[in-house]
Amino acid sequence: MNPLLSLLKPYPFERLRQLFADLTPNPAYTPISLGLGEPRHATPALIQQAMVKAIERRPSGLASYPATAGEPALREAFASWLQRRYGLSLDPTSQMLPVLGSREALFALTQTVVNRPTHAAEPKPLVVCPNPFYQIYEGAALLAGADPYFVASDPARNFAPDWASVPDAVWARTQLLIVCSPGNPTGAVMPLSEWQMLFELSDKFGFVIGSDECYSEIYFRDEPPLGGLEAAAKLGRTDFKNLISLTSLSKRSNVPGMRSGFVAGDAALIKPFLLYRTYHGSAMSPVVQAASIAAWQDEAHVVDNRALYRTKFAQVTPLLASVLDVALPDAGFYLWADVAGDDTVFARELYANYNVTVLPGSYLARTAQGQNPGLGRIRMALVADTAECVEAAQRIVEFVKTRV
Prior knowledge:
It is built from 14 helices and 14 strands.
C-alpha cells in the first residue's frame, strides 16, 4: 500500500459520526442537519431538461469516450461566463479545462504541481493553505509527498488567513498556495490588497496559486466577491502567471451530484494539468457536459438561488445572534459561531437534546502556529429550506438558554 495513505486523517463527517455514536437523539424532535455543506435547493429544471435532451438527441452519446479537454462548446460556455461575471477574456482552447467538481480538481492540481524531492535529505515541499480549511487541501498535499503548512488566522478579520505572518523560509519551500475566497467556513472574501501581496510573493518565490472559488455566487453584499483571475487582471497580470482558478456548479446551480466545474488560468499550467488528467481518467460525460453548458449560460436561476439564501440568512442570523456570537458572512452558506465553550460538547448536547446536527469548528482546523482557530466554534450549513433552518435556529436558541 502507498505509505502516504497512513498520513490521512479522518474526514470531519466521520469524526462527527464517531462523536455521536453513543447518543440517542431526543425523539420529540425530527432530525435537522446543519452539518453537511451539501446544497439542498431544487436543481433548476433547465439543467435537468438539458441532460434529458442530450440523451434523446444523441442516444449513442454514452457509447464513446469523451475527450478530457471537453467539447469546444463547453469551453466556450466557460469563457463566456468568465467574460460576463468578471469581464475577462481567456482562450477557451488553452486556458481552461472541465473538471469533475472542485474537490477532484484541487486534488489533481496538487499532484500536478508538487515536485517531490529526489533525495531523502532534501526538505519536503510545502503546500500552504488557510486554517480553518477544506480537508482536501491537507489530503492532497500529503498524497503528493508535500507537507501542509497552515497559516495563522486573524479572528479580528473573520478568521481570514494572516499571510503576512508566514516567514520567508516557508515561502521558499512552498510549491503551491491554496486560497479559498469566499472562505469555508467563515465566508470571508479576500480584498485586492491581499491578492497583490500573494502575487508578489509568488513572483519572488515561484509557487503556484490555486484559487478555490466554489462559493463565489452566493453572497450577501451588493458587490459580488472578487475572484483571483479578476484580481490578477486588475493588477495588470493578464497572463495569469502561476495562477489557476477553480470553480464549480455544485453550489451555484444546486447540482452537487453532477460533479461539474472548470479550472482556468495560466496556459503554461493548464497544459501539464491536461496531461495529468488524461492519465488520471477525469473526462466529463457528454450528457453532463450538455447540462453544464445550459447551467453556465443561464444566470436567472443563480439570481433566484442567491435570493433564497439571502432570505434564509436574514431570518436565521438574528435568531442565532441573540444567543451566540455570530454574524452575517460576506458570502457562502455557512454561519461560523462562537459557542463560548467546548465545541464538541456543544455539538453532542445539541444533538442529544434537540436533534440538530452542527459541525464542531475544531474538526475543520488543525493546531498550528500555536492555535486551533476552530476551537470553541461551530459551523452551520444553511442549505435546507428556510422553514427547516429557522426551526433549527429556534431549537439552538432554546438549547443555549438552557445552558446559561
